Structures are given as structure tokens and as C-alpha cells.
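Write out this protein's structure.
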Amino acid sequence: MNLRITALLVACIASFLTPFMGSATNIALPPIGQEFKVDAIVLGWIATSYLLAAGIFSVPFGRIADIKGRKRIFVVGLFVYSLGSLLSALAPSAELLIFFRIIQGTGGAMIFATGIAILTSIFPPEERGKAIGINVGVVYIGLSLGPFLGGFLTQNFGWRSIFFINVPIGLLAFILALSKLRGEWAEARGERLDVVGSVIYGFTLLLIIYGLTEVEIPYFSIGLLLLVVFAIYESRIKHPVFEIRLLRENITFSLSSLAALLNYSATFAVGFILSLYLQYVKSFTPQQAGVILISQPVLMAIFAPFAGWLSDRIEPRIVASAGMAVTTLSLFIFSGISSNTPTNLIIANLMFLGFGLGLFSSPNTNAIMSSVEKKFFGIASATVATMRLVGQILSMAFTMLVFSIIMGKVEITPTYHSLFIQSARTSFIIFATLCFFGIFFSLGRGKIRG
């Protein structure tokens, strides 16, 4: 097995596991709550702790990987992730489960921060888009199949099976990476790690996300203040954890990153909303709802590699912007959803959404990675992962805020179906608006080829 195939295989295994875990856990939360007898806030932290840990540590580990070697951090990440999965499966209490999820998310951060960077280091520019396209397709499969497969596993084998199944797959990727990947790829070797900047970054993300999710304005405000402090500090030191000049001076990198953030913020909660809609309003079973929702990742998996290949031949901004436009239109169509919306229309529009997401993600990632020097591949890869993670959390935060304002904290019974529909429509309008602005950020990034 040659180096490129090995790297792509290992990266794809890791790229499936990490987003799969994040989305599958949501399905298992009710059984976890019943076993540990905990409230909704604790359950929320079981889901959020993983995403937050991954988001907080992705950028610092991206920088460490640039300095110490990407293979080293990637392999350690696979081991830590597998260990966190095993401990989570064996957790005797909700509090320990949250702690083990943080361990799992930390391992996920090491994987997020290095996977795409390794592919970018190994594959030449003319093949890079195709490789990234395959990898992005696998990310979306994991992200979207999580609720479906998670529901099947939870229903038939218990919630702990979701964590157990990650262990052998993670260890397989660990053994392959350790024994078959040749090279370290450390273009920033010898430079120093910015510990102070890493700490400021972690607290900034934590406070902003906590403030938004819990609607705590003081925490959110402090987080924004720290963001300013972080930007000023990073622009003044020699070896920052995050190269602010990449955002300030590299228009392709900054606008592509912002486009990714908007895209994930607008699309991650779609599956959550439609899962509730199909089960509560349409009275489908969880397995039936999963079959309907599978239509989106199928199209994403088909078109992400094609779009990556296309972005090697056409300007990535053109392909990605077309994908963002299709996504915007799909979300706008969903904003007209009602209790009488035909199921076939929902399936068709999910496929349309999957097509748009497939067109956007690979070229956008290709544009980000191709716009930076080799020594910044780790930090660029970590930025891609952070945009995804922060976007996922923001998407859920926006949705829960809308539901809280329109519906309040009530059970979704037939009495409240009309308010649920109103909440869903409002959320989709917000999402369509975010994606609409994303089109212009995507178009405005400039060319990456002469």
C-alpha cells in the first residue's frame, strides 16, 4: 500500500469517527438521562463537552503539529480518542461521562488539526482537491449518519454501544498510521509554542459558546472582549499559536474560513429540526425518520469528491459559491415547511441540500489549504476543523434560542405543533440568510491560481 493511499485511508477513517461521534450522541441522550437520572442541562453538557474540547484544542494542536510533526500528533490523537471512547462506554456516572467526553474531544482535536494537513503535505497540488474531496465526503457521511446509526445502535444494543464501536475502528486507524505512514511533516520545527495565546484562545471560545448557548450576555461579552485581546496579542508576538496575519493579509484564507463558518452555522441543525418534525408532526418512527434523512448524506458523498476534482481544474471559489447558492435556495424552500408538506418534497429538498453542501465543502477546503505556505498547513487544517465545530455549536445555539423564544420550554405535543412549525420556519429563514451572505464571502475570496 503506497503512502498516498495509506494516508487517505487513515484520514478517512478518522474523519468518519469524529463527526459520527458528535452527532450520534444526541440520539442516545434520553436513555443516558434515564439511566443516570439527570436533568436536561447535564445532558446538554454531555453533548457539548465533546464539541467544545475539540474546538478549544484544535488550533493549539495544529500549531504543535507544525512544530513537532503532524504524524506524531495524529497518531497520539487516535489513541487518546479511542481511550476516551472506551472510558465513555464504561462511565458509571454522568459527571464522569462528561469528563471522558472531554478526553475524547481532545483526541478528536488532534485528529482534526492534522488529518487534512497530512493529506495536503502528501498529495501534489493537481491531486489535492480530489483527495480533500474524498475526505470531506467522509466527514459529511459521519456527521449525517450519526443520528441514523446512533438510533439503531441505541435501540438494539444500548447507548454504550455508540462509544464501544469507536474503539476497534479507532485502534485500527492508530495501528495503520503508526506502522504505515512515513514522514513527520514539521515545517515549523524549532519554533516556540505560544502557550499564553493558546490559553486566551481556549477561554475566548468557551465563553462565547457558553454565553450564546445559555443566553448569558455577560459571559458572551467577556468572550468577545477576550477575542479582541487575543487578536492584538497574536499580532505582536514572533511565533503566535494562530497567525493573525493569515486573516489580515490573506483574503482567500480569511473569506474562505468565514464562508465555512457560515455554511456550518446554517446547516448543522437542519437534521436536528427535521428529525423532530418527522417524528412529532409526521409521526414517523426514529428508524423511518433516519431513512428519510439519509437522502442528504448520500448526495453529499457522491458530489464532494467530484467537486474536489472539479476545483483542481476550475477556480475553487466558483464551484464553492455555486454550492453555497444551492444550499441557500434549499434552506429557503425549507422555510415554507408546514404540517401538510409532502414527504417526497422533503426528501427531494434534502437531496438538493446534499448536492449544494457537496459542491461547497471540498473546493472551499481546497481554497483554504492552497492559499497558505507549507509551514502553515497544520494551522490551516485546524482552522477548517474549528470553523466546522464552532459552526455546529452556533447552529444549535441559534435553533434553541428560536425555539425558546417562540415555543418556550415545553414538550412537543400536538397542542404545540403549530408553534414548533413556526420555530422551524424561523430557524430556516435565519439559516438561509446566513448562507446568502456566505455566497458573497465565497465569491470575494479572489483567485488561488494565476
